[in-house]
Amino acid sequence: MNVINPATGEQLDSYDEQTWSDVDSALERASEAFEEWRKQSIRERERLLETAGRVLRNNKNEYAEIITLEMGKPITQARAEVEKCAWVCDHYAEYGSTYLEDRHHPSPPGTTVKTVHQPLGPVLAVMPWNFPFWQVFRFAAPYLTAGNVGVLKHASNVPGCAIAIEDIFREAGYPEGVFQSLLVSSDLVADIIADDRIRAATLTGSGPAGRAVAAAAGEKIKKTVLELGGSDPFVVLDDADIESAAETGTQARNQNGGQSCIAAKRFVVHTEIYDKFIEALIDSFESLVVGDPTDENTDVGPQARVDLLTELHEQVEASIEAGATLVTGGEPLDREGAFYPPTILTDVPDGCPVDSEETFGPVAAVYEVADEREAITLANNTEFGLGASVWTADRERGEHVAKQIDAGCVYINQLVKSDPRVPFGGVGESGYGRELSEIGIKEFVNRKTVWIE
Ligand code: NDP
After folding, report:
1. Between the CA of residue 346 and those of 154, 258, 410, 434, what are the distances in Å?
2. Who is most buried in 186, 200, 212, 320, counting CB within 10 A?
3. If DSSP codes are grouped into helix, strand and coil, which group holds residue 129?
4. Residue 219's domain spans which residues?
5. Over residues 17-42, mean pLDDT
6. Structural contact between residues 452 and 113, judged by C-beta atoms closer than 8 angstroms
7. Quick one: DSSP state of residue 98?
8. How many domains does the chain have?
9. Residue 155 CA to ligand 1 centre (angstroms)
10. What is the DSSP track for 100-123?
11. pLDDT the model gives residue 157
12. Ligand 1 neighbours by CB, cut-off 6 Å
């Protein structure tokens, strides 16, 4: 596995890919570790998670540097990502046992009926490079606390992050085998899922990768949670605060170089305020500093890999060819590294790539709509259904619109974000299942009914 710094094109490091024999040993360790780990009290598991949070905070700068070097995230955003990982550790360290308390049910007199929550075993997590720490901690913090053990197959371009995360759990005092990183290609994933020692799987990533994982798990009747892509609408109604919507919309589209499943991708704007909004959005996009991700002042770093930049640019070019108007950006920067500028397209035709596909980079498709009804129709004109953002001065109107949008979450006057306290996940092509909160931690447990006569 060769690691290329996307800001410079230089090779940073090279790792030997692991073979099936390494995987076999890791699965054996996971299986053995689970038998002990499941017997630990949840209080003890919470205590270790709290320590993992401390390890993250104590070494924040070191981890942020690995993230920035491997996938190009601006350093300030990389530090924020590590902080957020510490937060999800704190959250489940505080609430894990409450979330997993036994639930009593109405039952005949003299009888006790309850649901208890018990771990499933080793869970495989196939994770992406875009938030290379957060995606993993979002998985590990709840599921390890529930008594499962974790086996991570991280994206091939971030092996340094995978190794650092395994080290964090070791340093925090987790027993050997409770969390392991495998450095393997995706070719081995189906065989790993098929192995009897793996009890469930989760993937965050693209649709094709999600389908492959779901098919392999389906073959063996194993539970999966899939968090796939999105093409989130950002709906700006006629009574919205335009400045605030444009400013937040800029952040929602461009943070992490636009490489986020919940980035605002399609801006749906009411005709009454369209001209003012687009002017503010262009100003805001053009004010962003694109460049060296290790520089504290950089807003947008490189795309994580050259092939991803090429794919993004092809989507933009094909959309212009189909009739979209390029308003700003639109050409890779003429410099070393995979840099793409914040880009806005208007007059976006139905079905062109930026309209119908996920754009994983700083490219906004902007639409003008006549009224609220048309805004809702357009917002729902996608196979994805991850998040949506709605902007209006009228909170009731916002809620009314939110109920009509087909998505896993709708944020009113706020950008879509994941938060340890709140369930996160999508519908349609965006996947299924929920992560985070009480709902998330219960995805990978056996909700066992116990009837006591
Ligand atoms: P992938 O979905 O290919 O990669 C995500 C993870 O899945 C990686 O660990 C990858 O491993 C693994 N993977 C890939 N193919 C398979 C497979 N057939 N079976 C099992 N595991 C697999 O994303 P890419 O990096 O190629 O990015 C492509 C596009 O995917 C992006 O442009 C974006 O649209 C979307 N994406 C969405 C993300 C999200 O947060 N929802 C995150 C990342 C990408 P390996 O790296 O070894 O191939």
Report:
1. 36, 18, 24, 34
2. 200
3. coil
4. 2-228+428-452
5. 98
6. yes
7. H
8. 2
9. 7
10. TS-EE----TT-EEEEEEEE-SEE
11. 97
12. 126-128, 130, 153-156, 185-186, 189, 204-206, 209, 212-213, 227-229, 261, 308, 358, 360
Q: Ligand 1 mean position to 380 CA, how many Å?
A: 25
C-alpha–C-alpha distance, residues 80 and 57, integer Å: 10
Query: What's 243's domain CATH number?
Result: 3.40.309.10
Q: Alpha carbon of 36 to those of 30, 92, 104, 145, 310: distances in Å?
A: 10, 20, 27, 13, 48
Interhelix angle for 159-172 vs 60-71, to 10°? Answer: 160
88-111: per-residue pLDDT in tens? 999 999 999 999 999 999 999 999
| In the chain, % of residues over pLDDT 70 | 100
- The number of beta carbons lying within 10 Å of the beta carbon of residue 305 is 18
Mean pLDDT of 394-421: 98
Same domain as 244, residue 175? no
- pLDDT value at residue 132: 98
**Residue 422 CA, distance from chain mean position:** 14
Q: Are residues 380 and 444 in the same domain?
A: no
206, 122: one domain: yes
- 222 and 238 share one domain: no
Q: Are residues 252 and 287 in the same domain?
A: yes
Would 419 be classed as within a structural domain?
A: no
Residue written as token pair 């902080």: 83
Ligand 1 atom with the shortest distance to the CA of 154: 9
**pLDDT, average across residues 164-171:** 98
In a shared domain, residues 407 and 278: yes
Q: Is residue 420 part of a domain?
A: no
Average pLDDT over residues 410-431: 98
Query: H helices of 333-425, where?
Result: 353-356, 372-379, 395-403
- Please tell me whether residues 195 and 240 are part of one structural domain: no
